[in-house]
Amino acid sequence: MAKRYLTTPIYYVNAEPHIGHAYTNIATDSLARFYRTMGDDVYFLTGTDEHGEKVGRTANEEGKEPQEFVDEVVKTFRRLWQDLKLSHDGFIRTTDQRHVEAVQHVFQQLYDQGDIYLDTYEGPYCVHCETYWSENKLDDQGNCPECNRAVEYISEDSYFFRLTKYIPELRKHLEANPKFVSPESRYNEVVNLLNEGVQDLSVSRTKFDWGIPVPFDEDHVVYVWFDALLNYLSGIGYPNKKFEDWWPPKVQFIGKDILRFHAVIWPCMLMALDVALPERVQAHGWWTLEGDKISKSKGNVVDPRELAHQFGRDALRYFLLRRIPFGEDGVMSDEGLVELINGELANNLGNLVNRSLSMVEKFADGIVPKPEELETDLESPADFAAQHRQNFIELMEDLKFDRALKELMLFTSKTNRWLQEEAPWKLDREENRERINAILYQLCEALNEISYLAEPVMPETAAEIKKRLEVSEQGNLETRRWGELKGGEKVTIGDPLFPRID
């Protein structure tokens, strides 16, 4: 049994969550569920990033103490993950005492070994992004290149992390591990960042106090990004050696806008700590509305709860992972959702489930025929199931979610065509009893196969198919063999899994 540690970024709590947050966590949840269906042991970590100047200012604007403010906003993230029925194993907050202690431990260790030193920072700083910028990185108006807001010019004493010391080692790692950063376009972006040159990183602030105190200098708090990145260690028990039970991460999911922090600063911090690097940092794109990035500041926030309520949790998950290759940008629209739900989920998958179970009810009194009593020379979906299953596994492993789901739809479409060709409704029931029963059994096994492939992305759909087949347990996807149904199961037709939307 392999161990798989998966992480999402921790989300900044200056505002409530939107579809972009849900997208990252749904992708991570789907991979976690996939590994579990493969028989692997998984730890899926998510959480919230609660320190920094921006949070302190927002709390002040609302007339609240920072801790009071973050406690309220964190509830909205927890509630969304519950509403979406995500399967995370851990939830880390940067205000948790275990995290505070881990950050102070790291800061002290790096200071003691000479990798953190005191100096002065002077230059532009984006409070909204909590990011230091050099002058040549600002846009044509002198604003932050990420959020296009005005930067502030600050001058303050600061502790610096010797980032430049570890850049040569990072270059070697990138060259030896071309999938360390994915997709390829983001890998190239990181290489370009290194070629442009980096500087040592300011890792403490003195202008405000909403942060983790530097353990040996009470005038400083730890820079919010240095603080936040360490959640991936503190969330599994670092510095206790027990963290090694899960480390290193199999995949760390991030949005493309925080690539620099996770693919340059973070690995250098780990090198300084002599901790192994993640296997893969996977960046995804943005969902847009008519070409504009979805964000609170633009006033075009999409509430994932509303979409899940309107279209269903599984349909939303399917849309987000099927619509675009993971890593690219996508356009969010009701029309796109309806098109995909009607075309692939209602007309293809839902239709096959409904008509198959209806035929078992009509021709076999709702009982799955026993396999040992069936005609054995019947061509069936078993002839193409194994290849689609293997393709599905390989594509999920490579985070090609859209293509993996295409394999599910291809198998479903082929099964629908096979059923049309066999046309049991045209056969004389008495003269072709064995053949009809064989067709029905193979249909039920095809539905069982679909439940396996649907489980990672559409867990409720998979569970419902199992329930309608009277199958109580999910086996191992990798070792699954056709013919698990024993016969004698009482099927239930039920309502359409995905009703067509007009």
Helices and strands, with pairings:
Blueprint: E1 3-7, E2 11-12, H1 19-37, E3 41-49, H2 53-61, H3 66-83, E4 90-93, H4 97-112, E5 116-126, E6 131-132, E7 152-161, H5 167-176, E8 181-182, H6 184-196, E9 201-202, E10 204-205, E11 213-214, E12 217-222, H7 224-229, H8 231-234, E13 251-255, H9 259-273, E14 281-284, E15 287-289, E16 292-293, H10 304-311, H11 313-322, E17 330-331, H12 334-364, H13 382-397, H14 401-422, H15 433-454, H16 459-469
Parallel strand pairs: 1-3, 1-13, 2-3, 3-4, 8-14, 13-14, 15-17
Antiparallel strand pairs: 5-6, 5-7, 7-9, 10-12, 11-12, 15-16
Helix pairs in contact: 2-3, 6-9, 10-11, 12-14, 12-15, 13-14, 13-15, 14-15, 15-16
Summed up:
This protein is α/β, with parallel strands linked by helices.
Structural overview:
- It is a single chain.
- With 502 residues, the chain is an alpha/beta fold.
- The protein has a domain at 334-469: Orthogonal Bundle (Isoleucyl-tRNA Synthetase, Domain 1).
- It is 46% helix and 15% strand.
- The protein has helices at 19-37, 53-61, 66-83, 97-112, 167-176, 184-196, 224-229, 231-234, 259-273, 304-311, 313-322, 334-364, 382-397, 401-422, 433-454, 459-469, and strands spanning 3-7, 11-12, 41-49, 90-93, 116-126, 131-132, 152-161, 181-182, 201-202, 204-205, 213-214, 217-222, 251-255, 281-284, 287-289, 292-293, 330-331.
- The strands form four sheets. Strands 1, 2, 3, 4, 8, 13 and 14 form a seven-stranded parallel beta sheet that branches. It has a four-stranded antiparallel beta sheet with strand order 6-5-7-9.
- Helix 9 (259-273) links the parallel strand 13 (251-255) and strand 14.
- The longest helix is centred in the C-terminal third of the chain and has 31 residues, at 334-364.
